[in-house]
Amino acid sequence: MTEAVRRTLPVIVVVVGLLVVWYAAAILGDLPQARDLATPGAAPTTLVRMALALERPLVPAPHQVAAALIAGLVQPLNSPRSLIYHAAVTASSAIVGFALAFVLGIALAIGIVNVRIFDRSIMPWIIASQTVPALAVAPMVVVVLGNAGLTGLVPKALIAAWLSFFPIVTSMVAGLRSPERIQLDLLRTYSAGGWDVFARLRWPASMAFLFPGMKIAASLAVVGAIVAELPTGAQAGLGARLLGASYYGQTLQLWAALAMASLLAVAAVAAADAARAVLVRARGGRL
Amino acid sequence: MTDPPALAPVAVVAKGLSLTFGSGAEATRALEGVDLTILRGEFVSLIGPSGCGKTTLLRAIADLERPTGGTLLVNGMTAELARKQRAYGYVFQAPALYPWRNVERNVMLPLEIMGVPRAERRDLARRNLQLVGLTEVARRFPWQLSGGMQQRVSIARALSFSPSLLLMDEPFGALDEITRDGLNLHLHELWRSTGMTIVFVTHSIPEAVYLSTRIVVMSPQPGRIVDVIDCDLDPQRPLEIRDTAAFSAIGSRVRRALHSGASHD
Hints:
The structure holds two protein chains of two kinds.
Chain A: H1 3-37, H2 44-51, H3 62-74, H4 83-114, H5 116-131, H6 134-147, H7 153-176, H8 181-189, H9 194-229, H10 238-247, H11 251-282
Helix pairs in contact in A: 1-2, 3-11, 4-5, 4-7, 4-9, 4-10, 4-11, 6-7, 7-9, 9-11, 10-11
Chain B: E1 10-21, E2 28-39, E3 43-47, H1 54-61, E4 69-74, E5 77-78, H2 79-84, E6 88-91, H3 103-113, H4 118-131, H5 147-159, E7 165-169, H6 177-194, E8 197-202, H7 205-211, E9 214-219, E10 224-230, H8 245-263
Parallel strand pairs in B: 3-8, 3-9, 6-7, 7-8
Antiparallel strand pairs in B: 1-2, 1-4, 4-5, 9-10
Protein backbone atom coordinates (compact mmCIF):
# COMPACT_ATOMS: atom_id res chain seq x y z
CA MET A 1 0.00 0.00 0.00
CA THR A 2 1.27 3.45 -0.81
CA GLU A 3 1.52 6.08 1.90
CA ALA A 4 -1.41 8.07 0.47
CA VAL A 5 -3.69 5.05 0.46
CA ARG A 6 -2.62 4.05 3.97
CA ARG A 7 -3.52 7.50 5.21
CA THR A 8 -6.82 8.00 3.44
CA LEU A 9 -8.20 4.48 3.72
CA PRO A 10 -9.19 4.68 7.41
CA VAL A 11 -10.87 8.03 6.78
CA ILE A 12 -12.83 6.63 3.85
CA VAL A 13 -13.86 3.54 5.82
CA VAL A 14 -15.15 5.70 8.69
CA VAL A 15 -17.02 8.07 6.37
CA VAL A 16 -18.63 5.21 4.43
CA GLY A 17 -19.55 3.49 7.71
CA LEU A 18 -21.15 6.66 9.02
CA LEU A 19 -23.12 7.17 5.79
CA VAL A 20 -24.42 3.58 5.92
CA VAL A 21 -25.56 3.99 9.52
CA TRP A 22 -27.06 7.40 8.73
CA TYR A 23 -29.04 6.12 5.73
CA ALA A 24 -30.26 3.15 7.75
CA ALA A 25 -31.42 5.50 10.50
CA ALA A 26 -33.11 7.76 7.95
CA ILE A 27 -34.99 4.86 6.36
CA LEU A 28 -36.04 3.40 9.71
CA GLY A 29 -37.07 6.80 11.05
CA ASP A 30 -38.96 7.99 8.03
CA LEU A 31 -40.67 4.81 6.79
CA PRO A 32 -43.76 5.26 9.01
CA GLN A 33 -44.35 8.77 7.62
CA ALA A 34 -43.78 7.51 4.07
CA ARG A 35 -46.25 4.66 4.67
CA ASP A 36 -48.88 7.19 5.82
CA LEU A 37 -48.43 9.28 2.69
CA ALA A 38 -48.16 6.44 0.16
CA THR A 39 -51.08 4.78 -1.55
CA PRO A 40 -51.89 1.46 0.15
CA GLY A 41 -50.02 -1.48 -1.33
CA ALA A 42 -47.08 0.56 -2.60
CA ALA A 43 -43.90 -1.39 -3.30
CA PRO A 44 -41.21 -1.37 -0.57
CA THR A 45 -38.74 0.32 -2.96
CA THR A 46 -41.22 3.14 -3.53
CA LEU A 47 -41.65 3.50 0.24
CA VAL A 48 -37.90 3.73 0.77
CA ARG A 49 -37.54 6.26 -2.05
CA MET A 50 -40.31 8.34 -0.50
CA ALA A 51 -38.80 8.03 2.98
CA LEU A 52 -35.56 9.50 1.70
CA ALA A 53 -37.26 12.44 -0.01
CA LEU A 54 -39.74 13.71 2.61
CA GLU A 55 -40.19 17.44 3.02
CA ARG A 56 -40.10 17.26 6.82
CA PRO A 57 -38.32 14.02 7.62
CA LEU A 58 -37.79 12.88 11.20
CA VAL A 59 -34.24 11.89 10.28
CA PRO A 60 -33.05 13.66 7.12
CA ALA A 61 -30.81 11.64 4.82
CA PRO A 62 -27.27 12.88 4.15
CA HIS A 63 -28.02 13.98 0.60
CA GLN A 64 -31.03 15.98 1.84
CA VAL A 65 -28.89 17.79 4.42
CA ALA A 66 -26.24 18.47 1.80
CA ALA A 67 -28.85 19.87 -0.59
CA ALA A 68 -30.34 22.09 2.13
CA LEU A 69 -26.87 23.28 3.12
CA ILE A 70 -26.00 24.15 -0.48
CA ALA A 71 -29.35 25.86 -0.93
CA GLY A 72 -28.59 27.98 2.14
CA LEU A 73 -25.12 28.83 0.88
CA VAL A 74 -26.18 30.02 -2.57
CA GLN A 75 -28.86 32.40 -1.29
CA PRO A 76 -28.16 36.13 -1.76
CA LEU A 77 -26.28 37.36 1.28
CA ASN A 78 -29.03 39.78 2.36
CA SER A 79 -31.66 37.01 2.37
CA PRO A 80 -32.82 35.72 5.78
CA ARG A 81 -32.42 32.23 4.29
CA SER A 82 -28.72 32.71 3.62
CA LEU A 83 -26.65 30.47 5.88
CA ILE A 84 -23.60 32.60 5.17
CA TYR A 85 -25.43 35.61 6.57
CA HIS A 86 -26.43 33.73 9.72
CA ALA A 87 -22.96 32.25 10.11
CA ALA A 88 -21.45 35.74 9.82
CA VAL A 89 -23.71 37.03 12.59
CA THR A 90 -22.72 34.14 14.85
CA ALA A 91 -19.07 34.40 13.87
CA SER A 92 -18.92 38.08 14.77
CA SER A 93 -20.06 37.47 18.35
CA ALA A 94 -17.84 34.37 18.55
CA ILE A 95 -14.81 36.36 17.40
CA VAL A 96 -15.43 39.26 19.78
CA GLY A 97 -16.11 36.77 22.59
CA PHE A 98 -12.96 34.83 21.83
CA ALA A 99 -10.86 38.01 21.73
CA LEU A 100 -12.29 39.02 25.08
CA ALA A 101 -11.64 35.55 26.52
CA PHE A 102 -8.11 35.54 25.14
CA VAL A 103 -7.11 38.85 26.71
CA LEU A 104 -8.94 38.20 29.98
CA GLY A 105 -7.77 34.59 30.20
CA ILE A 106 -4.10 35.45 29.71
CA ALA A 107 -4.30 38.37 32.12
CA LEU A 108 -5.91 36.12 34.75
CA ALA A 109 -3.31 33.40 34.19
CA ILE A 110 -0.47 35.89 34.64
CA GLY A 111 -2.12 37.10 37.85
CA ILE A 112 -2.63 33.57 39.13
CA VAL A 113 0.97 32.56 38.46
CA ASN A 114 2.52 35.70 39.93
CA VAL A 115 0.27 36.51 42.87
CA ARG A 116 -0.30 33.73 45.36
CA ILE A 117 -3.48 35.31 46.75
CA PHE A 118 -4.89 35.31 43.22
CA ASP A 119 -4.24 31.60 42.92
CA ARG A 120 -6.12 30.89 46.14
CA SER A 121 -8.97 33.36 45.68
CA ILE A 122 -9.76 33.36 41.97
CA MET A 123 -9.07 29.83 40.76
CA PRO A 124 -12.03 28.25 42.65
CA TRP A 125 -14.37 30.85 41.13
CA ILE A 126 -13.04 30.18 37.66
CA ILE A 127 -13.74 26.47 38.08
CA ALA A 128 -17.15 27.17 39.63
CA SER A 129 -18.06 29.41 36.71
CA GLN A 130 -17.71 26.48 34.35
CA THR A 131 -20.01 24.22 36.37
CA VAL A 132 -22.90 26.63 35.79
CA PRO A 133 -24.56 25.64 32.50
CA ALA A 134 -24.19 28.43 29.95
CA LEU A 135 -27.74 27.81 28.76
CA ALA A 136 -29.00 28.73 32.25
CA VAL A 137 -26.84 31.81 32.55
CA ALA A 138 -27.43 33.14 29.06
CA PRO A 139 -30.99 34.50 29.59
CA MET A 140 -29.90 36.20 32.83
CA VAL A 141 -26.96 37.86 31.16
CA VAL A 142 -29.15 39.00 28.30
CA VAL A 143 -31.84 40.41 30.61
CA VAL A 144 -29.40 42.12 32.98
CA LEU A 145 -27.37 43.67 30.18
CA GLY A 146 -30.55 44.58 28.30
CA ASN A 147 -31.70 46.57 31.35
CA ALA A 148 -28.34 48.30 31.34
CA GLY A 149 -28.95 49.26 27.75
CA LEU A 150 -26.58 46.71 26.21
CA THR A 151 -28.16 44.66 23.47
CA GLY A 152 -27.11 42.99 20.25
CA LEU A 153 -23.53 41.83 19.99
CA VAL A 154 -22.28 42.58 23.51
CA PRO A 155 -24.34 40.08 25.53
CA LYS A 156 -23.76 37.35 22.95
CA ALA A 157 -20.01 38.00 22.92
CA LEU A 158 -19.93 37.91 26.72
CA ILE A 159 -21.60 34.49 26.79
CA ALA A 160 -19.19 33.22 24.15
CA ALA A 161 -16.31 34.58 26.25
CA TRP A 162 -17.75 32.90 29.35
CA LEU A 163 -17.29 29.46 27.80
CA SER A 164 -14.15 30.31 25.92
CA PHE A 165 -11.88 31.77 28.62
CA PHE A 166 -11.61 28.66 30.79
CA PRO A 167 -9.33 26.56 28.53
CA ILE A 168 -7.20 29.66 27.93
CA VAL A 169 -6.73 30.34 31.64
CA THR A 170 -5.96 26.73 32.53
CA SER A 171 -3.59 26.08 29.64
CA MET A 172 -1.80 29.38 30.19
CA VAL A 173 -1.40 28.76 33.95
CA ALA A 174 0.11 25.36 33.16
CA GLY A 175 2.34 26.91 30.48
CA LEU A 176 3.63 29.76 32.63
CA ARG A 177 4.49 27.22 35.33
CA SER A 178 6.14 24.80 32.92
CA PRO A 179 9.79 26.01 33.04
CA GLU A 180 12.07 23.54 34.76
CA ARG A 181 14.26 24.26 37.77
CA ILE A 182 17.41 24.25 35.66
CA GLN A 183 15.99 26.87 33.27
CA LEU A 184 15.06 29.09 36.22
CA ASP A 185 18.45 28.52 37.91
CA LEU A 186 20.14 29.62 34.71
CA LEU A 187 18.41 33.00 34.86
CA ARG A 188 19.28 33.27 38.54
CA THR A 189 22.97 32.94 37.70
CA TYR A 190 22.53 36.01 35.48
CA SER A 191 20.82 37.76 38.38
CA ALA A 192 17.83 38.25 36.08
CA GLY A 193 14.87 40.26 37.37
CA GLY A 194 11.21 39.24 37.46
CA TRP A 195 10.46 40.82 34.11
CA ASP A 196 13.28 38.91 32.38
CA VAL A 197 12.09 35.64 33.93
CA PHE A 198 8.62 36.33 32.60
CA ALA A 199 9.45 37.69 29.16
CA ARG A 200 12.40 35.46 28.30
CA LEU A 201 11.36 32.19 29.94
CA ARG A 202 7.81 31.83 31.27
CA TRP A 203 6.03 33.52 28.36
CA PRO A 204 7.83 31.73 25.50
CA ALA A 205 7.61 28.42 27.41
CA SER A 206 3.84 28.84 27.79
CA MET A 207 3.18 28.94 24.03
CA ALA A 208 3.36 25.16 23.62
CA PHE A 209 0.54 24.94 26.20
CA LEU A 210 -1.50 27.90 25.00
CA PHE A 211 -2.26 26.62 21.51
CA PRO A 212 -4.03 23.35 22.43
CA GLY A 213 -6.12 25.40 24.89
CA MET A 214 -6.77 27.99 22.20
CA LYS A 215 -8.16 25.34 19.85
CA ILE A 216 -10.69 24.25 22.45
CA ALA A 217 -11.46 27.88 23.27
CA ALA A 218 -12.08 28.73 19.61
CA SER A 219 -14.67 25.98 19.18
CA LEU A 220 -16.26 26.84 22.53
CA ALA A 221 -16.60 30.46 21.43
CA VAL A 222 -18.72 29.28 18.49
CA VAL A 223 -20.82 27.09 20.79
CA GLY A 224 -21.21 30.02 23.19
CA ALA A 225 -22.28 32.39 20.44
CA ILE A 226 -24.93 29.91 19.23
CA VAL A 227 -26.21 29.24 22.74
CA ALA A 228 -26.40 32.99 23.35
CA GLU A 229 -28.70 33.42 20.33
CA LEU A 230 -31.25 30.91 21.66
CA PRO A 231 -32.81 32.90 24.53
CA THR A 232 -32.26 36.38 23.16
CA GLY A 233 -35.06 36.25 20.68
CA ALA A 234 -32.43 36.90 18.06
CA GLN A 235 -33.66 37.18 14.49
CA ALA A 236 -30.29 36.35 12.99
CA GLY A 237 -27.48 33.94 13.66
CA LEU A 238 -27.20 30.17 13.42
CA GLY A 239 -28.74 29.82 16.88
CA ALA A 240 -31.81 31.77 15.82
CA ARG A 241 -32.00 29.70 12.64
CA LEU A 242 -31.80 26.47 14.67
CA LEU A 243 -34.48 27.64 17.07
CA GLY A 244 -36.80 28.81 14.30
CA ALA A 245 -36.38 25.62 12.29
CA SER A 246 -36.99 23.49 15.34
CA TYR A 247 -40.10 25.56 16.25
CA TYR A 248 -41.65 25.09 12.83
CA GLY A 249 -40.51 21.47 12.44
CA GLN A 250 -38.29 22.33 9.48
CA THR A 251 -35.88 19.48 10.06
CA LEU A 252 -33.94 19.98 6.84
CA GLN A 253 -33.34 23.63 7.72
CA LEU A 254 -32.37 22.58 11.26
CA TRP A 255 -29.80 20.08 10.06
CA ALA A 256 -28.42 22.46 7.47
CA ALA A 257 -27.91 25.07 10.19
CA LEU A 258 -26.23 22.41 12.35
CA ALA A 259 -23.91 21.49 9.50
CA MET A 260 -23.10 25.18 8.99
CA ALA A 261 -22.36 25.54 12.71
CA SER A 262 -19.91 22.69 12.62
CA LEU A 263 -18.24 24.18 9.55
CA LEU A 264 -17.88 27.42 11.50
CA ALA A 265 -16.31 25.57 14.45
CA VAL A 266 -13.95 23.77 12.07
CA ALA A 267 -12.94 27.16 10.61
CA ALA A 268 -12.33 28.51 14.13
CA VAL A 269 -10.08 25.58 15.03
CA ALA A 270 -8.28 25.91 11.69
CA ALA A 271 -7.63 29.59 12.46
CA ALA A 272 -6.06 28.62 15.79
CA ASP A 273 -3.94 26.03 13.97
CA ALA A 274 -2.84 28.64 11.44
CA ALA A 275 -1.73 30.97 14.23
CA ARG A 276 0.24 28.08 15.73
CA ALA A 277 1.87 27.33 12.38
CA VAL A 278 3.17 30.90 12.16
CA LEU A 279 4.87 30.58 15.55
CA VAL A 280 6.20 27.11 14.75
CA ARG A 281 7.85 28.46 11.62
CA ALA A 282 9.41 31.34 13.57
CA ARG A 283 10.81 28.79 16.02
CA GLY A 284 12.48 26.72 13.35
CA GLY A 285 9.90 23.93 13.13
CA ARG A 286 9.00 23.14 16.72
CA LEU A 287 6.90 24.81 19.35
CA MET B 1 33.43 42.74 31.36
CA THR B 2 35.11 43.22 34.72
CA ASP B 3 38.69 44.33 34.89
CA PRO B 4 40.76 41.33 36.08
CA PRO B 5 43.57 43.19 37.88
CA ALA B 6 41.06 44.95 40.13
CA LEU B 7 39.88 41.63 41.56
CA ALA B 8 41.23 39.93 44.67
CA PRO B 9 43.97 37.32 44.02
CA VAL B 10 41.67 34.79 45.65
CA ALA B 11 38.63 33.67 43.70
CA VAL B 12 36.82 31.56 46.30
CA VAL B 13 37.33 31.15 50.04
CA ALA B 14 35.26 28.76 52.14
CA LYS B 15 35.84 28.50 55.89
CA GLY B 16 34.01 25.95 58.03
CA LEU B 17 31.27 25.88 55.40
CA SER B 18 28.29 23.68 56.14
CA LEU B 19 24.96 23.23 54.43
CA THR B 20 22.10 21.10 55.72
CA PHE B 21 18.95 20.35 53.74
CA GLY B 22 15.81 19.93 55.84
CA SER B 23 15.78 19.61 59.61
CA GLY B 24 15.31 17.09 62.42
CA ALA B 25 15.47 13.42 61.54
CA GLU B 26 15.03 14.23 57.85
CA ALA B 27 18.08 16.50 57.72
CA THR B 28 20.78 15.80 55.14
CA ARG B 29 24.19 17.18 55.93
CA ALA B 30 25.25 17.96 52.35
CA LEU B 31 28.36 19.86 53.44
CA GLU B 32 30.18 20.00 56.75
CA GLY B 33 33.30 21.90 57.80
CA VAL B 34 34.48 22.61 54.27
CA ASP B 35 37.66 24.71 54.12
CA LEU B 36 38.86 25.57 50.64
CA THR B 37 40.74 28.42 48.99
CA ILE B 38 40.76 28.72 45.21
CA LEU B 39 43.26 31.17 43.72
CA ARG B 40 42.59 33.16 40.61
CA GLY B 41 43.62 31.32 37.46
CA GLU B 42 43.40 27.87 39.05
CA PHE B 43 41.55 24.93 37.56
CA VAL B 44 40.09 23.10 40.55
CA SER B 45 38.14 19.88 40.20
CA LEU B 46 35.71 18.63 42.84
CA ILE B 47 35.54 14.85 42.70
CA GLY B 48 33.73 12.25 44.76
CA PRO B 49 30.91 9.72 44.74
CA SER B 50 27.32 10.90 44.43
CA GLY B 51 26.01 12.51 47.59
CA CYS B 52 29.43 13.88 48.57
CA GLY B 53 28.25 17.47 48.20
CA LYS B 54 30.39 18.44 45.20
CA THR B 55 27.46 19.87 43.27
CA THR B 56 26.08 21.48 46.43
CA LEU B 57 29.44 23.20 47.02
CA LEU B 58 29.42 24.50 43.44
CA ARG B 59 25.82 25.67 43.79
CA ALA B 60 26.70 27.41 47.07
CA ILE B 61 29.55 29.27 45.32
CA ALA B 62 27.00 30.28 42.66
CA ASP B 63 24.52 31.38 45.36
CA LEU B 64 22.01 28.82 44.08
CA GLU B 65 22.04 27.24 47.57
CA ARG B 66 22.39 29.06 50.89
CA PRO B 67 25.00 27.64 53.32
CA THR B 68 23.70 27.05 56.84
CA GLY B 69 27.05 27.74 58.51
CA GLY B 70 30.57 29.06 58.00
CA THR B 71 31.73 31.74 55.61
CA LEU B 72 31.97 31.78 51.84
CA LEU B 73 33.54 34.58 49.82
CA VAL B 74 33.57 34.81 46.02
CA ASN B 75 35.88 37.46 44.54
CA GLY B 76 36.22 38.87 48.05
CA MET B 77 32.48 39.40 48.54
CA THR B 78 29.50 37.31 49.62
CA ALA B 79 28.29 34.75 47.10
CA GLU B 80 25.04 36.65 46.75
CA LEU B 81 26.77 39.93 45.93
CA ALA B 82 29.08 38.12 43.50
CA ARG B 83 26.06 36.60 41.76
CA LYS B 84 24.37 39.97 41.57
CA GLN B 85 27.55 41.39 40.01
CA ARG B 86 27.45 38.51 37.52
CA ALA B 87 30.88 37.33 38.61
CA TYR B 88 30.65 33.83 37.18
CA GLY B 89 29.40 31.76 34.29
CA TYR B 90 27.68 28.48 35.15
CA VAL B 91 27.50 25.34 33.04
CA PHE B 92 24.88 22.86 34.21
CA GLN B 93 24.83 19.06 33.89
CA ALA B 94 22.25 19.45 31.12
CA PRO B 95 22.68 22.09 28.39
CA ALA B 96 19.52 23.95 29.58
CA LEU B 97 19.16 25.66 26.22
CA TYR B 98 15.86 27.39 25.53
CA PRO B 99 14.29 25.37 22.69
CA TRP B 100 12.53 28.36 21.14
CA ARG B 101 15.80 30.23 20.61
CA ASN B 102 18.29 29.31 17.93
CA VAL B 103 21.91 28.66 18.90
CA GLU B 104 23.03 32.24 18.45
CA ARG B 105 20.12 33.66 20.41
CA ASN B 106 20.75 31.16 23.21
CA VAL B 107 24.29 32.46 23.49
CA MET B 108 22.97 36.02 23.48
CA LEU B 109 20.51 35.35 26.34
CA PRO B 110 22.79 36.52 29.19
CA LEU B 111 23.90 39.50 27.11
CA GLU B 112 20.28 40.57 26.57
CA ILE B 113 19.61 40.37 30.29
CA MET B 114 22.76 42.33 31.05
CA GLY B 115 21.76 45.08 28.63
CA VAL B 116 24.55 44.66 26.09
CA PRO B 117 23.69 46.60 22.90
CA ARG B 118 22.37 44.53 20.01
CA ALA B 119 25.35 44.85 17.64
CA GLU B 120 27.80 43.95 20.38
CA ARG B 121 25.62 41.01 21.44
CA ARG B 122 25.80 39.48 17.99
CA ASP B 123 29.52 40.07 17.84
CA LEU B 124 30.15 38.42 21.21
CA ALA B 125 27.89 35.49 20.35
CA ARG B 126 29.79 34.90 17.11
CA ARG B 127 33.15 35.11 18.84
CA ASN B 128 32.19 32.67 21.58
CA LEU B 129 30.60 30.23 19.17
CA GLN B 130 33.85 30.31 17.26
CA LEU B 131 35.67 29.55 20.51
CA VAL B 132 33.72 26.29 20.88
CA GLY B 133 33.87 25.61 17.14
CA LEU B 134 30.18 26.04 16.35
CA THR B 135 29.98 29.05 14.04
CA GLU B 136 28.37 27.04 11.29
CA VAL B 137 25.32 26.04 13.38
CA ALA B 138 24.53 29.53 14.74
CA ARG B 139 21.10 29.53 13.04
CA ARG B 140 20.13 26.01 14.01
CA PHE B 141 17.83 25.18 16.88
CA PRO B 142 18.95 23.16 19.92
CA TRP B 143 16.97 20.05 19.00
CA GLN B 144 18.82 19.90 15.69
CA LEU B 145 22.17 19.45 17.48
CA SER B 146 23.82 16.45 19.14
CA GLY B 147 24.18 16.36 22.93
CA GLY B 148 27.86 17.28 22.70
CA MET B 149 27.14 20.27 20.47
CA GLN B 150 24.37 21.42 22.78
CA GLN B 151 26.73 21.34 25.73
CA ARG B 152 29.29 23.35 23.74
CA VAL B 153 26.60 25.94 23.04
CA SER B 154 25.94 26.14 26.78
CA ILE B 155 29.67 26.69 27.37
CA ALA B 156 29.69 29.47 24.75
CA ARG B 157 26.70 30.97 26.54
CA ALA B 158 28.51 30.88 29.89
CA LEU B 159 31.60 32.47 28.33
CA SER B 160 29.68 35.12 26.35
CA PHE B 161 29.95 37.83 29.00
CA SER B 162 33.60 37.01 29.81
CA PRO B 163 33.22 36.04 33.46
CA SER B 164 36.49 35.68 35.39
CA LEU B 165 35.12 32.57 37.08
CA LEU B 166 33.58 29.56 35.35
CA LEU B 167 31.61 27.03 37.41
CA MET B 168 30.97 23.71 35.66
CA ASP B 169 28.76 20.97 37.10
CA GLU B 170 29.62 17.64 35.44
CA PRO B 171 29.22 19.28 32.05
CA PHE B 172 30.40 16.24 30.08
CA GLY B 173 28.85 13.55 32.29
CA ALA B 174 26.14 12.63 29.79
CA LEU B 175 28.42 12.46 26.76
CA ASP B 176 30.19 9.54 25.11
CA GLU B 177 33.89 9.08 25.77
CA ILE B 178 35.16 10.28 22.39
CA THR B 179 33.12 13.47 22.49
CA ARG B 180 34.22 13.94 26.08
CA ASP B 181 37.92 13.61 25.17
CA GLY B 182 37.56 16.26 22.49
CA LEU B 183 35.76 18.64 24.83
CA ASN B 184 38.35 18.07 27.59
CA LEU B 185 41.15 19.01 25.21
CA HIS B 186 39.19 22.03 24.10
CA LEU B 187 38.37 23.15 27.64
CA HIS B 188 41.99 22.83 28.71
CA GLU B 189 43.12 25.06 25.85
CA LEU B 190 40.36 27.53 26.62
CA TRP B 191 41.44 27.73 30.24
CA ARG B 192 45.10 28.19 29.28
CA SER B 193 44.37 30.93 26.76
CA THR B 194 41.92 32.92 28.90
CA GLY B 195 43.49 32.62 32.35
CA MET B 196 40.03 32.10 33.85
CA THR B 197 39.41 30.44 37.17
CA ILE B 198 37.48 27.21 36.65
CA VAL B 199 35.76 25.10 39.30
CA PHE B 200 34.78 21.79 37.76
CA VAL B 201 32.63 19.04 39.27
CA THR B 202 33.22 15.53 37.96
CA HIS B 203 33.19 11.91 39.00
CA SER B 204 35.77 10.84 36.46
CA ILE B 205 39.33 10.49 37.81
CA PRO B 206 41.08 10.77 34.40
CA GLU B 207 39.06 13.84 33.53
CA ALA B 208 39.95 15.52 36.82
CA VAL B 209 43.67 14.67 36.51
CA TYR B 210 43.81 15.78 32.90
CA LEU B 211 42.17 19.17 33.44
CA SER B 212 43.08 20.34 36.92
CA THR B 213 45.78 22.21 38.75
CA ARG B 214 44.31 20.87 41.99
CA ILE B 215 41.88 18.08 42.73
CA VAL B 216 39.57 18.31 45.74
CA VAL B 217 38.46 14.84 46.82
CA MET B 218 35.17 14.72 48.66
CA SER B 219 33.27 12.08 50.59
CA PRO B 220 29.60 11.68 51.55
CA GLN B 221 27.60 11.57 54.81
CA PRO B 222 28.34 14.26 55.70
CA GLY B 223 29.70 15.86 52.55
CA ARG B 224 33.27 16.91 53.30
CA ILE B 225 36.74 17.33 51.81
CA VAL B 226 39.02 14.34 52.48
CA ASP B 227 42.07 15.40 50.49
CA VAL B 228 43.37 18.10 48.16
CA ILE B 229 45.84 16.80 45.59
CA ASP B 230 48.15 19.03 43.55
CA CYS B 231 48.21 18.17 39.89
CA ASP B 232 51.46 19.57 38.50
CA LEU B 233 51.50 18.00 35.06
CA ASP B 234 53.10 19.77 32.12
CA PRO B 235 50.83 22.70 31.14
CA GLN B 236 51.08 21.40 27.56
CA ARG B 237 48.58 18.55 27.75
CA PRO B 238 47.97 16.46 24.68
CA LEU B 239 45.47 13.68 25.39
CA GLU B 240 48.41 11.19 25.31
CA ILE B 241 49.63 12.61 28.62
CA ARG B 242 47.12 10.23 30.15
CA ASP B 243 49.42 7.33 29.25
CA THR B 244 52.37 8.70 31.25
CA ALA B 245 53.54 7.45 34.64
CA ALA B 246 53.13 10.91 36.21
CA PHE B 247 49.48 10.95 35.16
CA SER B 248 48.82 7.48 36.60
CA ALA B 249 50.57 8.38 39.83
CA ILE B 250 48.24 11.33 40.43
CA GLY B 251 45.26 9.19 39.41
CA SER B 252 46.25 6.57 42.01
CA ARG B 253 46.52 9.21 44.71
CA VAL B 254 43.02 10.44 43.88
CA ARG B 255 41.71 6.87 43.91
CA ARG B 256 43.32 6.15 47.29
CA ALA B 257 41.83 9.37 48.71
CA LEU B 258 38.39 8.37 47.41
CA HIS B 259 38.68 4.95 49.07
CA SER B 260 39.94 6.36 52.36
CA GLY B 261 36.94 8.70 52.31
CA ALA B 262 34.59 5.81 51.74
CA SER B 263 36.10 3.69 54.56
CA HIS B 264 35.26 6.40 57.12
CA ASP B 265 31.67 5.21 57.22
